[in-house]
Amino acid sequence: MVPFASISLGMGALSWLIPRKVFSAVDNLLYSSYMRACLFVFENVASTKINFYGDIEAVSAKRESAIVLSNHQSNVDWVVITMIANRQQGNECGLRFMIKYAMHYFPLFGWYTYQHGYVYVRRFGSVMWSAVERQLSFLKSLNEPFWLLIFPEGTRFSPKKRDIIESSKRFCERIQIPVFENVLTPRTSGFVLSMRHLRESVDAVYDITLAYDQSKEVGREKCAPNMFEFVCGVNSKRTLHIHIRRFPVNELPEDVDALKEWLMQRYLIKNGMLEAFYNGDGLPDLAVIDAPRTPFSVTVPPSLFFAFALIAPFFSTTVRKIYLVTICSSPALILWLRLRGCV
Questions:
Q1: Rounded to whole angstroms, what are the CA distances from 148 to 13, 15, 96, 120, 315?
Q2: What is the rounded CA–CA span in Å between residue 278 and residue 216?
Q3: What is the residue-level pLDDT of the chain in tens, covering all 343 positions?
Q4: Given strand 66-70, what is the order of strands in its sheet?
Q5: Which H/E stretch holds residue 85?
Q6: Sequence-distant (≥ 6) Cβ neighbours of residue 215 within 8 angstroms
Q7: Hey, which residues does 149 pair with through a beta bridge?
Q8: Cβ-proximal residues to 165 (8 Å cutoff; 6+ apart), any chain
Q9: Rounded to an integer, what distance in angstroms lies between the CA atom of residue 307 and that of residue 301?
Q10: What domains are defined for the chain?
Q11: Where are the alpha helices (DSSP H) in 181-232?
């Protein structure tokens, strides 16, 4: 993150001299390079097999703006969404996330992702909706396609989180809907607010269901792999199953209660699909088996760039000083986010 942040801070210092279009283009190049370096590890190095289901052909046809909904099981999930964005004609540069508030404390990461358009929300306590709305307005102002990824469950589904799962089940019983066994009850506020602000700016809503073959291994009890397990696990089990439904935005209801009900129904369907997957039936609407991986020509150059940037301080005192200044600036950047009411 330090090389990445050093370049970004340098660009930020010169932003008043650089036209916004040029600044955005360079920032997108930097961001997509980082994402493609991640794909090098999680696709190429891991030799991942990917099966697509549903509307992958429609989603891959052209770049477009979308609100993306996905179930959440692992810290690998965001990389999987990046894999999909890359297949939309290299649209990983447009990928933004709605993420939990605490992550703005991560040194350098919090500052950079905020200025790139990530949306921070609190899982507990009062939400600063003004800060959220400001970020959504920033996305509206972009003159380029973007994705806003939302994990409506708010946290990862894991059989180990028994208290959270039981709380989700009690909520289902209270509102008299079938109990979720494979997902958590979706929180609707972030999605509803995003739809209210971005309806005129997005082309579609993508409903994505992720499933990992590794979660069906004996003894895992539906527990999805973490990053290390995914990359270093048994090769024959390193298979991703990605189901995508694309909904044109004009097909979604505008009424708030109807929109909440729509999201709840999508999660009922998602829960059923995952139940069938764990029982051995697979996901429905198989479209592509063992999809071609992102080419080395796309992932290797940025990986080499960041590898060189990481070892550069060992050979250059100038680079070492730049990185040290970047690291020392982290507390000030976090303070800036707080004082400006950004989070």
A1: 27, 25, 5, 12, 39
A2: 6
A3: 777 778 777 777 666 677 778 888 888 999 999 999 999 999 999 999 999 999 999 999 999 999 999 999 999 999 999 999 999 999 999 999 999 888 888 888 888 888 889 999 876 555 567 788 899 999 999 989 999 999 999 999 998 899 999 999 999 999 888 899 999 999 999 999 999 999 999 999 999 999 999 998 878 888 999 999 999 876 666 899 999 999 999 999 999 999 999 999 999 999 999 999 999 888 999 999 999 999 999 999 999 999 998 899 899 999 999 889 888 988 888 888 887 777 6
A4: 119-121, 95-100, 147-150, 66-70, 204-212, 239-248, 49-54, 286-288
A5: helix 77-86
A6: 73, 222, 223, 224, 225, 278
A7: 68, 97
A8: 157, 159, 184
A9: 10
A10: 47-296 (3.40.1130)
A11: 189-198, 227-232
Count of residues for the chain?
343
Task: Please give the structure tokens belonging to residue 298.
Answer: 């796309």
